[in-house]
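Researcher: I need the complex structure. Ligand is manganese (II) ion. Inputs:
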Amino acid sequence: MRVLAADLDAVARRMRSVDRVALAVHEQPDLDAVGAAAGMLDLFGQLGTPATLCVAEGELLPFEESMLPSDAVARRPPAPGETLFALDSGSLPRLALDLGDWRGEVVDIDHHHDNTRFGDLVLVRPQASSTSEIVCDLARALELTPGRAAAIALYAGISFDSGHFRHTSTSAATFATAAWLAALGVDVTAVYRELYERRSPGAVRLEGRALAGMRTVADGRALIAVLTRADYAASGAADHEAEGVVERLRAVDGVDVVALVKEQEGSPRVRVSLRSSGADVSALAARRGGGGHVQAAGFEADESPEEVTEWLSSALARLLSTASS
Ligand SMILES: [Mn+2]
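Model: Output:
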């Protein structure tokens, strides 16, 4: 594929001229992926261009019922002749989509610093808080304002990816965009409640187990928490309910890197989430075939939680002994 540098206006121009659109998001889509997709669907709707969010069978879209129009989601690959807008995905294989033998134009819109620049048109802004924020930039370049439902989804996407406006990716532009969305009628309190205050008792119990068993590495500069199937069973929590744990670990004073090792029900056996306040955890994740952002990354492994934890302990001890302190 040709790789062209594209600016915001080039992608906005392409959005105006394209005939038929397939949108795609990364596997295990998060709220930024869904928010960006909802925003793009709304913009293409206003432009009068047919657009469908194409997702592989079995991929769960969070808040799908409330944030995405039901007739805009299809469990199929892109159709011939559709231009594929890939959202929030660092690479083509990471898409929650089996492209099969589909070939066509690809537009890559993302904020991951390790994005492989895979599209015919590439709009990658690593400094953006979220792909949802970039979609808002596109809306303004097109002189369009998202409808209220799309504005809510975009605001939710920004809130989610920025850790509710506190990660280092949160800039003045992020706040300006959030203000713009709030002015479009987003009830920011309602979104906060919906995103962060709907935890189940099981999720809180699960967090308690993870925190109680956490281990310290490198004199407390790294923390590792492990959740096994037994922890999920004892707390009565579902797989996706471990989300708050890494953030809780990260809030500990004097900690540079935190890791959460989660044992899965099926395969891969283990998923690891990494967060840091400076050290490059995406490089660490890449050594195990994973990736992500400098300060937020992850990988998967088929070893036992214990084996992965041992590997992490020594890798983190090495990383923090070489990193400037
Ligand atoms: Mn994102």
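Model: Summary of the prediction. The CA atoms of residues 265 and 311 lie 21 Å apart.
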